[in-house]
Each structure stands twice: as structure tokens, then as C-alpha cells.
Amino acid sequence: MTSLMFLTLFGGVCLLLYGIRLAGSGLQQAAGARMRGILASLTSNRVVGMGVGAAVTALLQSSSATSVMLVGFAGSGLMNLSQAMGVVLGADIGTTLTVQLIAFQFYDYAIFLVGIGITLSYLGKKHLVKHIGESILGFALIFLSLKLMTDAMAPLKQDPVVEEIFLLLQGYPFMVMLAAAIFTALVHSSAATIGMALAFASQGLIGIQAAIPIIFGANIGTCATAIALSFGATTEAKRVAAAHTLFKVLGVCIFFPLIVPFTQLITMTADDPMRQIANGHTVFNIAIALLFLPFTGPLSRFIQRMIPETAPSEKFAPKYLNPQMLESTPLALGQAAREVLRMADIVGDMLKKSIEPLKRGDVSMVEELQDSDDKVDLLNTEIKLYLAKLSQASLTERQSKREMDLLTFTENLEHIGDVIDKNIMELAKKKIINNLAFSEQGLSEIVTFHGMVAENFDLAVSVFTTRDIELARKLVRHKARISELEREYRQAHINRLHKGFRESIETSSIHLDVLSNLQRINSLLTDVAYPVLEVVE
Predict the structure, then answer these.
(1) CA dist 396 to 340, 387, 402, Å?
(2) Which of 4, 5, 134, 188 has the highest CB neighbour number within 10 Å of its CB?
(3) Are 160 and 270 within one domain?
(4) Among 289, 290, 262, 286, which residue's Cα sits nearest to residue 276?
(5) Same domain, 452 and 341
(6) Rounded to whole angstroms, what are the CA distances from 417 to 89, 266, 346, 386, 428?
């Protein structure tokens, strides 16, 4: 009997964790991109930021997901520490919604909700409907798991030894809090920890007095996610994680000595022990938000002194590919896109500078571009490995297409870098070593042609970023114009050969190969337009 009870309890906890993850994942898929936009644009005021943080976290059902966004925004410079602090406090409030819903004990409707969730997930024709179905299914599994745990614990309330153990634990609130913090850090979910407390309370095994240390421990334990996210991140991202941890730890330090009056306050909010626990969790987070919100300025300065700016590492590495963000597909794709744009900046700079060795014979520029190509090769590899870690089962059709677009554009950027480094720069070195010079007209044509390709590079990046159909059409039109111009310049060079121009004869192979390589670069750039145009064809 005891073995079956513990097996059921273990299964219930696992089902609870899976339900929380499924509910949050479905809502993130349905609204994650919109939530990122809201977070990034509405956080200039700390009070508004707190409200936005609470609303976004309530919708996403995960303060961890909000923390991922905040650390990512801080790491990329879209948000500073002062802005993030209000959102962090709001996120702590928003995450209490899950516990409040659990405490309503919708046990009898759990199977019905499972049916609705599965129906919408498998029969819904629109992605939004499918994701909402996943969320409903996740919530249904949460309620079902609590029903399983509650039923499994029913025999315990008749056991005097178990009753004695729980009474004994009430005398060691600090140890209970520590255990709750460790468990929450391991499962990455404060809702799961407090959900177990609700299951204990439903059988009368614990009351609000014993549950308060569990609430405090769960709130401290949830900081582990933010801390893990900050490893290897920028200084500003580390400060955001530190702010989240500071709020929780200071809040517990303030309220822990006041457990007795705090418990008395919570008992006045409801008669049901489960509702009291949920209310205690909510009141604690609202209290620390109201307590610390006026002091975000001084606390920001304190954290900045505690975590000073560090000199940037000389070793080149990916900047946005945070492995913690792989838990959220929309966030991971967004971060990968940011890294691709960073790669595009490097390749664009290579392309613009590649004309200088051909014009002026600068050998040092050749070496600089070779170093840049090594960085491009590194980013190409890291982006591919990062995207490969995404679960294919969790990707929607639209996300799969976006992943493929990212991989294709990344591959083309890498090819462009190779064309510049291994082809154009080799031609430049050949010209420099042999002390050759283009004819005045020939150099003018190469410079003009190079400039048009460089302009097309910027246009291609804009198409990749905005997916604008008109820009994509413009890019395709430019490809045709550049192909025509390449033929004109090639014929002009041949005409100069017929006239016996010495410079044209000496640089003939270099001249024509430069034109061919620039034309190849332009063809690679134009590939980004076709997936955009497929949408309207």
C-alpha cells in the first residue's frame, strides 16, 4: 500500500510539472511574439513595467519565460536594469495566478478539460486554436495531477506517525523553507512546489502555518532559473538576474521573522486551507513588489556596484545564443535571428572593405578580412548547432519554415564570406604581388559594380528582417539589372583588350574573375527574397 502511494505521488508530481510546462508552452506559442513586443516597448515607466510583467507572466504561466525575455533584452541592450526591475516585480505577481487557479479545486472537471484540450489540439485547423488547446490540456493535467496526489495522500491522515512528523516539521520552519527552495530549484517551478503543499493541505496534513515556510522557500528557489540564465551573459543580464534574486531574498528576510503575524493576516483572507496557501503566495509577492518598487533606483545603483562592468572578452563568440532560451521555441528562434543579423553585419563590413585592396593594394586589409571570415565561419557553425537543438516535435509549420529561412540565410552569408576571403582577396593579393594596375575605366567599372552589390546586400538584410514583399520584389529586380550590367562591363573589358590597352591585358583574368565573384555574391543575396515571395504566389 505504501509503495503504491509513493508511486502515485511521484507520478502526480511528474504530471503536475508536465501540465505546467504544457500550459505555458501553448500560451507562449500563441502569444510569445506579441508578449516580447509588449515587454520591449512598454517598460519605460517602472509602474507600467510592473503591470506589464504581471500581465505577461500571467498569460505565459511562467516567470521563468519572462526572466528569459528580460535577460535576453538586457543582454542585447534593449532594456536596462532600471527598466527590468519593475517587470521582475510584476512577473513575481503574475506567476501566482497558476497557484490561485489550482486552489479552486476544479478536480471534477479535469477529465472534461482534457477532452476539450485534446480536441482543440488535434482538430483545430488554425495554429492559434491548437496552441490554446495545448494550454487547456496543460491546465487539465495540473488539476488531474492534484487529484491523484490528494487521493494518494488520503491514507496518511489516518497514520499517527505521519501526523507526528508533520507536527515536528512545524517546529523547524527554516529547514522546511530550505527544502522547498532546493526542490523548486531542481524542478524550476514554484507552482509545482506550492501545488504539493496544496495537496498536503487538502488532506489536513498541513495548515497555513506550516505552508508559509514552503511559500518562502518556493519563491527563493525560483531564482535558480534567472541565475542559470545569466551564466555567460552580459553584465547587464547578470544584473537583471541579481535583481530578481535580491528581491526574493530580501523579501523573505523581512517576512520570515514575521511568520506569526503574517500567518494571522492570511487566515483572515479565507477559511479553506488551500485558498489560504494560494492567498499567502499572492500576498507575499504583491507585498514585496509594493515594498521595493519605490526603491528600484537605489537598488539599481547597489547592484551596479555589486556587479561592475567587466572588460569585454577578447575571444570572439556568439552573443545571443543562450541555451536556456531553447526551452521556448519562439524565443530561441528570435535569438538565433539576432545572431544571424550580427553575422550579416560582419559579412556586410567585409563586402564594403573588399574593394580597398583592389583599389589601393593594402595588404593589411586582406589579413583583416581573413580574420573576419574566421568569425563568420564560427557563427555559422554555432547557429546551426543551436537550431539543431530545437525539438522538431514542438515546431509549428510556420516555425519550421522560419528555422529553414534562418539556416539558408546563414549558409549564404558564410558562402559570401568565403567568396570574399578565398576568391576576391586572393585576386587582390595576386594583383598586389605582381604590381599590377587596372585601367582607369576598368577600375571605375569594378568600383561601380561593387557598390551596387553592396547596396543589394543592405537590401537583402532588410528583406530578411522585415519579410516585406515589395522589398523582396525590388531585390529580384536588382538581380536582373546587376546581371545585365555584369555582361556590359565584361564586354567593355573585352573591347579594351581588342584595342590593346596594356593594363587591361595584364589584369584581364583578375578583372573578369572579380566581376564573376561579385555577381555570385549578388545571386546568393537574392535567395533571401524567394521564400518571402512564395507567400503571395
Answers:
(1) 21, 14, 10
(2) 134
(3) yes
(4) 262
(5) no
(6) 45, 64, 9, 21, 15
Q: Are residues 107 and 212 in the same domain?
A: yes
Distance from C-alpha of 388 to C-alpha of 41, rounded to nearest angstrom: 31
Number of folded domains in the chain? 3
In the three-class reduction of DSSP (H, G, I as helix; E, B as strand; rest coil), residue 40 is classed as: helix
Grid cell, residue 90, equals 510584476
For 220-257, letters b (16+ CB in 10 Å) and e give bbbbbbbebbbeebbbbbbbbbbbbbbbbeebbeebee
Supply the DSSP symbol for 89: H
Q: Are residues 64 and 143 in the same domain?
A: yes
For 380-428, how does the pLDDT look when each residue is reduced to its tens digit (9 = 90+)? 999 999 988 886 656 777 788 888 999 999 999 999 999 999 999 888 8
pTM flag (> 0.85): no
Residue 138 CA to residue 62 CA, distance in Å, equals: 13
Contact, 325 vs 390, CB < 8 A? Answer: no
Give the helix ranges, DSSP H, for 188-320: 190-202, 208-221, 223-230, 235-255, 259-267, 273-292, 296-306
The amino acid that residue 121 corresponds to is S
Q: Which sign, positive or negative, has the C-alpha torsion 29, 30, 34, 40?
A: negative
**Distance in angstroms (rounded) separating the CA atoms of residues 437 and 361:** 9
Return the C-alpha cell found at 418: 568565403
Residue 319 covered by a domain: no
Q: Which of 257, 279, 306 corresponds to the end of one domain?
A: 306
Same domain, 504 and 377: no
Joined grid coordinates for residue 144: 488531474
Task: Summarize the confidence of residues 308-336 as an average pLDDT.
Answer: 75
Structural domain boundaries, residue 335: 325-414
Same domain, 46 and 156: yes
Taking the C-alpha atoms of residue 323 and residue 334, their distance in angstroms, rounded to an integer, is 13
